[in-house]
Amino acid sequence: MFDVAIIGAGMSGLQAAVSAKQAGLSFCVIEARDRVGGKVWSIPLASGRGTADLGAAWINDELQPRVTAYVRKFAMKTISQPIDKTAIVQVSEDERLEFLFGVIPDFPPEEKTNLEMIRDHIEAESQKKEAPKLEDDQVSLDTYVRKLGATEKTCKMVNLWVRAMHGLESTEESAAHFIDYCRRNHGLLAARADDHTGGNYLRLQGGTQDIARGIARLIGEQHIYTSHPVQSIHDEQEKVTIYTSNGRIFVAKKVILSVPSTLFKDIKFSPPLPAALQERSSNTKLGHYSKAIVCYDKPWWRDLGYNGFLFSYVGPISIVRDTSVPEKNYYSLTCFVNGSVGAEWAKLNPHARRRAVLEQLAKGYNVDRSSELWRPIEFFDQIWKHELYSQGALSPIPALGHYVKFQSVHGRPVGNIHFVGTEYSDHWKGYMEGALNSGAQGAEEVVKALKVPGSRL
Fold first, then answer.
1. Residues 349-361 pLDDT 10s
2. Which of 84, 120, 229, 312 has its CA 20 to 30 A from that of 160?
3. How far is CA 336 from the centre of its chain?
């Protein structure tokens, strides 16, 4: 019998295992996929020029201490997100604006003032050290900003924030949850920023999955059981028995469950989870979050004076970022194809998806058929809704009215089962940093529950 069985080898599960090992616990890590990392997944390019991140890609070495410590421990090389030159906004099918990156585009004065008012209000609310408000949880973010006087164009920008951050529409997420999400990530501006003040600052030259692989080595890969999907968890008070779909049985005193709450429905719990927790978890959503990555021989957009950043009210692409690694002669644009328009795009066949992305990029960057844009050396996409053990990204979003109502049960242990994941983090929720924080906290709960003497946690 293990002291603790950790279900899920995403970042929170891996960190829980590291912390359990440091505390002297016996443990195992049970993972459904054939790899570690969860939504942290880097794949090698056919060109041999490096790797591309299909999932989590950015860190901040000033604001995210846990992930930064691993990057330094494993001697990983970073690259800053380009923020010079010109950015682009697609306002409609026929209208585009160029603007200096980091400032509001040159919208008409009244629209600009309105957008600044809404942005500053949400930023100010997200800087307050207070609990989310019940009344704000009962309305969508869209309704909330309209009540503040947001114009239609400002509402489109707010919707873009939600698409980019959560893969949903602003009508699907409560104002309280969105504001509190920003609060846990240093505010709205930090959650959106590409410089040293925000969450999209640095990338890893070798890909973020190197962090997960490095942590797995620290754990000891003999403790990690990949390709073992968990089917059921039986809490028998003195022990917990875990059955996997490939016939393996694990027994432990405690379980740390590193699985998004939306996916609890896919596991049989005996006894069943408390009714309140079931209601909350069964009514969460994982966003329609996809990436299309277009690779080139050279960064043709930089030659045109662009830094690669583009955002669109139109779609299917919501946001584009330059994800090149010049040191590896690798140049790419990563397109986030999110929300409802992303859901429609995901229904297309691969050729049609590729065509839709290239056509939108051509309009956005205002280039014709002679452009290098039409001659990518590689093109691939990742639709997280189609990935069996993710079924969306980034972290689960509760139904309207559920965030405040069920806070007393969300993330709290149930019997011998403890819950971890980026959705539970008080710091950098939705990011790798948040997952690491939650994993460490879950392990600490188990150590205290087992009353381990001399623990180093």
1. 999 999 999 999 9
2. 84
3. 12
Give me the CATH number covering residue 316.
3.90.660.10
Is residue 308 domain-shared with residue 373, that is, in the same domain?
Answer: yes
Rounded to 5 degrees, φ, ψ at 78 are -110, 165
The total number of structural domains in the chain stands at 3
The predicted model scores a pTM of 0.96
Please check if 336 is assigned to a binding site. yes
CATH number of 436's domain: 3.50.50.60
Same structural domain, 265 and 294: no
Domain hosting residue 260, numbered range: 2-39+209-285+396-451
* Bridge-based pairing state of the strands 268-270 and 230-235: parallel
Order of strands across the sheet with 319-322? 96-100, 86-90, 306-312, 319-322, 331-336, 290-296, 378-383
393 among the known binding-site residues?
Answer: no
- C-alpha–C-alpha distance, residues 355 and 398, integer Å: 34
Is 230 labelled as part of a ligand binding site?
A: yes
pLDDT digits (tens, 9 = 90+) for 334-384: 999 999 999 999 999 999 999 999 999 999 999 999 999 999 999 999 999
Residue 277 lies in a domain: yes
Using the structure block, give the residue that is written with the tokens 């020029």: 49
Neighbours of 214 (CB within 10 A): 18
